[in-house]
Amino acid sequence: MTFIPIDRSRWDREEYFSYFSHEVPCLYSMTLNLDVTPVMKSKERPYPAMLYFLSVVENRHKRYRISFNEKGELGYYDVVHPSYTIFHKDDHTFSSLWTEYSETYDDFLASYEADEARYGKVKGLFGKPDRPANLFPVSVIPWVPFQSLHLSFPKTPGNFFPMYTMGRLHRKRSHYYMPLALEVNHAVCDGYHAGRIFKEVQSLINGWR
User: Does position 157 have pLDDT exceeding 70, yes or no?
Assistant: First the structure.
């Protein structure tokens, strides 16, 4: 994990960052139904597949990896990994695990399944220990095919990573759809950058093996 500081005196985003961080703090959300038919037809598990697609897009663009470090410097990480929720059916609680990003899906899936086997039954908010700073959050509400979702945070977070929430898979005729809610901070992401996430994730799904 490497943190690269941003030279804010020369950063072309500085005016927007300052405005939407201090004068008009703004987080906004968008929800889109993704067509996940290729994944379902491939018989792959949709949850780790979606975690992988999100990780690929996150690591393509440094804009989605911007954060403050422990010194209060603004910068971005060279790589980020997904932090995701799992559900405990026996007591209806959840825990958060994380898996290291790998460039190939097979390697990522192997790591995901290893984490699932080792930490999947560990109770508590954080099931897997030693959480690094470069984690982006993903959660899932598999019981509801929601049309929109809004998360509310009273203070600006220490990082500016997008936040994702997946919903219940549902079928329409011969296609399968999954709602994906995205929450971003306007200080680093405009509408174009939010839309790009959906576009690139859908493109990865469409080109699935």
Answer: no
| 125 contacts: CB under 8 Å, gap ≥ 6 | 95, 96
Nearest to 202 by CA among 80, 23, 56, 16: 56
Q: Is the pLDDT of residue 112 over 80?
A: yes
Helix axes 46-60, 191-206, angle to 10 degrees: 130
Which residues are the active-site residues?
186
Residue 204: how many other CB atoms lie within 10 Å: 19
Task: Specify the amino acid at residue 122.
Answer: V
- CA–CA distance from 80 to each of 2, 38, 47, 96, 134 (Å)? 10, 26, 18, 16, 5
Separation CA 203–CA 208 (nearest Å): 9
Would you say 194 and 30 are in contact if contact means Cβ atoms under 8 Å apart?
yes
When pLDDT is cut at 50, 70 and 90, the band that residue 139 belongs to is very high
